[in-house]
Amino acid sequence: MKDFAYLTAHDVPTAVRAITTPGAKFLGGGTNLVDLMRQNIERPDTVIDITQLPLDQIEELPDGGLRIGAMVRNSRLAAHRLIRTRYPVLAQAILAGASGQLRNMATVGGNVLQRTRCPYFADLAARCNKREQGSGCDAIGGFNRNAAIFGASEHCVATHPSDMCVALAALDAIIELESVRGTRRLPLVGFHMLPGDSPQHETAIAPDELITAIELPDLPAAARSRYRKVRDRSSYAFALVSVAAATEVRNGVITEARLALGGVAARPWRAHEAERVLLGAPATEDSFLRAAEAELTAAVPLSQNGFKIELAKRAITATLRQLHVEGSAA
Amino acid sequence: MTYVGKPVDRVDGTLKATGAARYAAEFPYPDLAYAALVHATVARGRITRIDAGLARKTPGVVAVITHLNAPAMKPPPKPTPMDLSTMATSSSVSLLNTDEVHWNGQPVAVVVAETLDAAREAAHLVEVEYTELPATVDFAAEEANARPQKNTLLSSANTQKGDAEAALAAAPFSVDLRYTTPGVNHNAIEPHSTTAYWDGDQLVLHDATQNTTWARDQLAIRFDVPKKNVRVISPFVGGAFGGKSLVWPGTVLTALAAKVTGRPVRLMLTRESVYRTVGGRTPSIQRVAIGAEAGGSMTALIHSSVSRVGKVGGWTEQITTVSRHMYDAAALQVRQSLVRLDALPNTIMRAPGESIGSFALESSVDELAYQLGLDPIELRARNEPARNPVDGKAFSHRLLLDCFEQGAKEFGWAERAPQPRATRDGRWLVGMGVAAAYHPAWQFQANLTLRLSADGTVLVRCGFHEMGMGTATAISQITADTLGVPLDAVTIEYGDSDLPGAGTAGASAQTATVTASLLDACEKLTDGVFALARKTPGSPLRGHRRQDVTARDGGLYRDSRGESYGEILRRAGRESIDAQVGSETRLGELTGQVRFMSKFLMDRRRWMKAACGAQFCEVRVDAETGEVRVSRWLGVFDVGRVINTKTAASQLRGGIIMGIGMALAEETLVDPRTGRIVNASLSEYHVPVHADIPTIEVRCLDDPDPTMPLGVVGLGEVSVTGVAAAVANAVHHATGRRIRDLPITLDKLL
Ligand SMILES: Cc1cc2nc3c(=O)[nH]c(=O)nc-3n(C[C@H](O)[C@H](O)[C@H](O)COP(=O)(O)OP(=O)(O)OC[C@H]3O[C@@H](n4cnc5c(N)ncnc54)[C@H](O)[C@@H]3O)c2cc1C
Questions:
Q1: Distance separating alpha carbons of residues B340 and A210, to the nearest angstrom
Q2: Which first-to-last residue range defines the signal peptide (chain A) (predicted)?
Q3: Does 3.90.1170.50 match the CATH number of domain B18-134+189-239+244-277?
């Protein structure tokens, strides 16, 4: 690993000033950044430890929403009473990710900005447009079993690996960013970008911005929500496909539907097509299936990941059914 | 016996639990420098330029060693079983003495620095350019070019009895199936590590190895010094599974780096470097065809395999071995062939051959059983041979059917609904599978010395290896029982090439190997003690015959008469008495080798010896997503006498877990365009995690093999065999789907 300067920021103004130094990077829990530094994929000159920032609160907002400080550790967030009762999908998504030790370290901000697990991104000997623009993409003609089926381009087929963000996408979370230039608030849906011809641009964050908080809207429907993660082993593996779902059913008719998929795109994939089918439809197996079919029509398989299309359909249907029958019970 | 057969705690347990046990990368030296490897990024080619300028400028860098400045070493010796000291050669490449690249990942430079971080950073900064040469790296694509594998002294690759193809064609019932297994890696928790220093032309090496003798001999050859100048120390090894049997690049390059810098140097491989420089298990393509009569009796059994080696080396696995020993087929044919790749040589990995061969054989037996409408256990029982099927040799010991019978009872086999996809528990389809486990029993040659001191303590010196199996504990138990002393009176020295040599810790042979010499030495020792007593005036043993006297209660006794070892030695004016088996002189070694070979070959001619067992598995498969979870496991094993029930159970469980990994998750992905391993990390290469493993029940029949020392049959490997087949058979029972390509990932079940 390259030698780097290390400093700890104790307040937000210091942090956002420090990040304007060229080659500087924020350090959250370090569970992604430090690994990438060891692999020489990230080589910052300065590392700004932001874990001491006073951004570790989970607060109720006057409008009934919730504000989560960017330094809140994943474990704490998942265990929080308000999260477990009002937004169970979020607690379940976080607990489905990584391991206990990693979740104890990982911060909310770091989780949002974690990088792809595409194996070619992680190997400096391979071609990767995300890592080195214009070098090519080895995943397209290589091992792409876990690559994207939505929104990929001829330049990049990587997925965003976060579980937490899939739940946040379903919940219409807002990301709050701060820089010396001021504060911005962006919807999480759309924050992560599709690769197009510039896969190195992964999110809407500017290089000098700090994530300070995530806000969840007041969303009564979210109390009845769940997360289903399908992966290659029982624990400690990234999603092949995951589903975050929240629905409200009145008199057998779906009156609100929120659905997002993980493991299928460079962003947590909000399943708008499926939601459209579900809204106003009877809460039946047939509707769930039609919704899944509708969402997956746009999917484009690569040489090895075609199974994800069928898997996503089944995972969506199963999750909606489980939600309907069992509610949020994990 | 007081200790043998009991769940005795590991003698090194406290050391390991408290961190006091030192592993190869933990030996402190003043002035220690750290090394890191630079890996080639092409599969085959020549280095045209190496620029180490930036690397050398990195603060703390001591040396950057490349083929341009490395001192010449002797080339690696060609491995031959006629000279065991050559067997540790892992590849024929003279690393850093050549500009040639033979596999993607081959080390092309070593950086030595004051700190580990500086070494790794500088390694990143070394720039290498290549001219690429055409390379053959795609195993699957090479199948058509496979060439027959030759029979060797240790393993025969081709055997025929009758006309199996004709018998198959004529059989009223038959299966003819193709199986594939991927390459996999060992992933020992301790990455390969070496600490080396030279004192003049004397080399001391702390190395994570399962064979200090082979490592010593190999290094002596490479650095052109006498064997006695090299000492390899390896008392604790953090798992090996065959991956630390040979001498891999890191070991040689650390010794080289220490020589170049004149300092003690430590190299602890990164996980990625382990994947790039230490071979794994070969992938395989197998065919198993079985012909049978309506009643189940097999008329033909054909098993053939294609596996790989590297063009620069590689271990050939006895993939079809199981099919020579398991079933009483009237006609039998096994054939193995090989493809040669521009790739890192593959190597020994837990039950080489049998682990993947048993997957194909035991899966196809299950398919045949379903075709015949017979219970798979019943089909096996109807084909259980009375003598070794290929050559009619007698089995020294074989309780395979007992294993099935006991296992079936305990597992509730009879209660299952035999038809597939018939049992459901909510979203889960539930299935049970069974398969036979099998691994030949080996025994090699160990030298050993014993010293009994007047204070009643015993010192055993023997260069065996402890990679976590519990050998030191087992050998302590046997020593204590044989000499009749308390366990804590026994000290064992092991894991050091300066000790009497014990060969390799492999082939599940170590306990039997060391026990044979230990029992001999104990016999000699008690003879010696008795002779002392008889000669010494005043000894209560005077006038007695040797055969009437037994070693017990810390001395030699006949009925109530006798005395303690301490009294005998003191009365004779001796501080201690020694016994020895084998000799370390050149002549001694040679005679030892000849004696071993002749006994080995004679034994082989007379007996078929093996460990076997029955694996019972229950799986749950999510009906929609195809996620497979193993929910119950029982293994019943015939492994001869069990020395330590606790460490034995732990070994057996470990093998089963490794088998579950092979069945459901493990796969080393090699990019067919570049020959480069794509998932060289534990986050992308999946081994089972705790949540994947249910409670694993293991049972041993504990019936001694009359032809083995103390009745011991090795048990380190047998438990990995049959596991993948039991899982695949259970998946079929649960879902009605046959998966013949490992690993059984959910996409194959959708
Ligand atoms: C073995 C392994 C398995 C894993 N499995 C899963 C899994 O199954 N599911 C899953 O979702 N995740 C998984 N993870 C990823 C894990 O969730 C992330 O590593 C973690 O969430 C990152 O958080 P962090 O605080 O440690 O981020 P860091 O590593 O500290 O930072 C990550 C990135 O975010 C930037 N950053 C951090 N905080 C801020 C901020 N406030 N503002 C601006 N930039 C910031 C950093 O500069 C860096 O670029 C796994 C990780 C590992 C190592």
A1: 53
A2: none
A3: yes
User: Is B575 among the residues known to form the active site?
Assistant: no
pLDDT tens-place string over residues B657-669 = 999 999 999 999 9
Q: Is any ligand 1 atom within 6 A of the Cβ of residue A166?
A: no
Cβ separation A232–B745 shorter than 8 A: yes
Q: Is B426 on the interface with A (CB under 8 A)?
A: no
- Residue B502 is predicted with a pLDDT of 87
Question: Which residues lie below 8 Å from residue A139, measured CB to CB, with a gap of 6+?
Answer: A118, A119, A120, A128, A147, A156, A157, A158, A302
B689–A236 CB contact, under 8 Å: yes
Q: Which domains does chain A have, with CATH numbers?
A: 1-54 (3.30.43.10), 223-329 (3.30.390.50)
* Antiparallel, parallel or unpaired: β B607-608 and B331-341: unpaired
Q: What whole-number distance in Å separates Cα of residue B606 and Cα of residue B157?
A: 20
The two structure tokens encoding residue B678:
């794509």
Position B154 scores a pLDDT of 66
Whole-number pLDDT of residue A161:
98
- Examine the pLDDT at A195 and tell me if it is beyond 90: yes
> In which residue ranges of chain B is pLDDT below 50?
none
Query: B21: exposed, middle or buried (C-beta count within 10 Å: 0-12, 13-18, 19+)?
Result: middle
d(CA B478, CA B441): 19
**d(Cα B96, Cα B643) in Å, to the nearest integer?**
46
Distance CA B345, CA B286 (A): 20
Quote the pTM value: 0.97
Q: What's the pLDDT tens digit per position in A153-180?
A: 999 999 999 999 999 999 999 999 999 9
Is residue B542 classed exposed, middle or buried when 0-12, 13-18 and 19+ CB atoms within 10 A define those classes?
exposed
Give pLDDT, residue B592: 78
Q: Where along chain B do the CATH 3.30.365.10 domains lie?
A: 141-184+281-441+609-748, 443-604
Quick one: average pLDDT of A182-193? 98
Distance from CA of A60 to the nearest CA of B (A): 35
Long-range contacts of B29-33 (CB under 8 A, 24+ apart): B29/B195, B29/B197, B29/B264, B29/B266, B31/B263, B31/B264, B32/B195, B32/B263, B32/B264, B32/B265, B32/B266, B33/B62, B33/B112, B33/B113, B33/B114, B33/B119, B33/B257, B33/B261, B33/B263, B33/B264, B33/B265, B33/B266
Interval between CA A108 and ligand 1 midpoint (Å): 8
Residues of chain B with CATH 3.90.1170.50: 18-134+189-239+244-277
Per the structure block, which two tokens stand in for B479? 């020593």
- Candidates A20, A49, A114: which one to mutate for ligand 1, based on the most atoms within 8 Å of Cβ? A114
Q: Using CA atoms, how far apart are residues B342 and B136, in angstroms rounded to an integer?
A: 5
Please tell me the distance from the alpha carbon of residue A265 to that of residue A186, in angstroms, as a whole number: 20
Only one residue has tokens 């009796």, namely: B297
Q: What is the pLDDT of residues A43-80, one digit of tens each?
A: 999 999 999 999 999 999 999 999 999 999 999 999 99
Which of A2, A142, A235 lies at the smallest CB-CB distance from B673? A142
Beta-bridge partner residues of B77: none
pLDDT for B389-440, tens place per residue?
999 999 999 999 999 999 999 999 999 999 999 999 999 999 999 999 999 9
**Is there a contact between B247 and B347 (Cβ–Cβ < 8 Å)?**
no
ipTM over 0.95: yes
Specify the CATH number of the domain B443-604: 3.30.365.10
- Which chain B residues contact residue A123 at CB under 8 A? 676, 678, 680
Dihedral pair phi/psi, residue B89, rounded to 5°: -60, 120
Fold for the domain defined by B141-184+281-441+609-748: Aldehyde Oxidoreductase; domain 4 (3.30.365)
Are B625 and A318 an interchain contact pair (Cβ–Cβ within 8 Å)?
A: yes
